[in-house]
Structure formats: C-alpha cells, structure tokens
Amino acid sequence: MVETEEFIEDAKAEIREAIGDANAVIALSGGVDSSVAATLAYEAVGDQLTPVYVDTGLMRKGETEEIRDTFDFMESLRVIEAQDRFFDRLEGVTDPEEKRHVIGEGFIDEFETVARDVDADYLVQGTIYPDRIESEGNIKSHHNVGGLPEVVDFEGIVEPVRDLYKDEVREVARALGLEAIISERMPFPGPGLAVRIVGEVTPEKAAVAREATHVVEEELEEYDPWQAFAAVLGKATGVKGDNRVHGWVVAVRSVESRDGMTARAQELDWSTLQRIQSRITGENENVARVVYDVTHKPPATIEYE
C-alpha cells in the first residue's frame, strides 16, 4: 500500500469523482472495514452519504449503542431496529447456507428501503482484498461483495479499500482518528452471531453466544488474538447445584492470523481457560459445559457456519 495519508487523500478523491452530486449509501456494521469505508466516504461527500446500521439481533454486546456514540458525527446515520423481523425469518431454519441467505435477504430488504428513501444512486462497500478472494472461491457466501447490487438498482459501486488487507485497513483507521474500539476491533462476520450458532437461530441462543463472546473477548484481550469468540453447539447434560441440567455447550475459539485466509488456534494457559469456563457457566444458568477449539484453518474455518 502507498503511504497511509496519501492513500486517504486518493481514496477520498476517487469517491468524490465516482459519486459526484448524487446520493450514496453504505452498510455500516461497526467493523473496521465498513467503518473506514464509511468515514472516507463521509469525509469526501458529507451528507450525500447515508450510513445504514441494521441491528439484526445478532450483534455483539452493546454494539448498537457503540455505533450511535462512535459515529454521532455522521448526521445522516440511520440505525434500524430489526431484531424481531430477523428472528421471525430464521425460525425453523437449520441449514448453514440457508441461514446465510435468509439473513442476507433480510438485510437487503432493510437496506433497500433506506436506499430508495434517500434516492441513492451509489453503493459504497467496505470490501477488502481477502473478501474478494474468499467470495470468488465460494468459501463464504455472505460477503459484502455479493447480493446487494443484484437487488438494488445502483448506478455504481464504490469500494475504496478493495485492495487492502486487514492490517492495512487498521492503519488507515488509526490515521483517520477512529477510536481504538473500531480500529483494533476483531473481525465480526456479516451474518453476525448466526454463524456461531449451530442449528436453528433463536433469541435464547443468540443471547448465550453474545454474553459468552463478551466474556471471551474480555478474558483474552492480553493474548491479542486475531479473532476470539464463543459459539453455541447444542445441548449436553450437566450438573448445577444439586440438579441435573440439560444445558448449552459453548465452544471457545481464539486464533492468530494476518489476513484471515489461514489461522492457527492459540495456545492458551490452562488457568485462562478455567477462568473463561467458570465465568461463562456461572453467568449463564443455561450453559452446561465449555470446550476449547484447537483446530487450525485449514482444515476448519474460523467461524462455525
């Protein structure tokens, strides 16, 4: 990548040239990629850009509030509360690919409504280089490179960070003055917690995954993982107090990587793992056991579905 400040100025010039006097929209997830793309575009064209954040009910703990606070300088920001609509769509859906498509279609519906409301001619996306590679290889079917342009009739698509890797995007985020909560944030999948829930996605499972992931992120901060989270696998027998319970099995995953194309499971201290399992089972009465995933990528993917 060219020098960071030069890249920022070139990217903003590219955005201004592409959009001109028209309106544009961007899906702002709160991840570093979309945050950088949105900030570049907002600095380039101001309120001609409408950032759209959709709360699907599958977000990290406190994420919606963080988005409102972090991007309050964007007067055109739209926050869409769509939790009930997404859980209704996901009821009874268990196939991983179908879940991704259902979430993608739900997001498109929400996004399309806003795009038409603001008469947007252009779509800005936070697509980065590994996104393009994995989408082309059918490793992931729900990347921000797919879906939206086929449904919403845009004159053009602008991807200002399309040639950057994640570490380069972080450099740009720091140079833009974005808070560390954004610039250093771990990657988060487009379908959200749904890909960390094996089987049907329900509000209960999402709540377990959200709270357990929050614990994992807090406890593993000192390890500086590329990505760390908790997934809900199914149910198993456990004992709490004097009672036999049939509670959720939570898998903890923590990996090291440069760009997400490959990854290695981190070697965590036993005391750290015990602290994590104690907090997860203690803070959620519906969790019966916690396991640690030691599989690298490949053969596993980083997320579960």
Automatic annotation (TrEMBL):
It catalyses: XMP + L-glutamine + ATP + H2O = GMP + L-glutamate + AMP + diphosphate + 2 H(+). One of its GO terms (cellular component) is cytosol. Residues 2-185 form the GMPS ATP-PPase domain. Its EC number is 6.3.5.2. Keywords: ATP-binding, GMP biosynthesis, Ligase, Nucleotide-binding, Purine biosynthesis. GO terms for molecular function: ATP binding; GMP synthase activity. The keyword Ligase applies. Heterodimer composed of a glutamine amidotransferase subunit (A) and a GMP-binding subunit (B). Catalyzes the synthesis of GMP from XMP. This is GMP synthase [glutamine-hydrolyzing] subunit B. It comes from Halorubrum tebenquichense DSM 14210. The gene is guaAB.
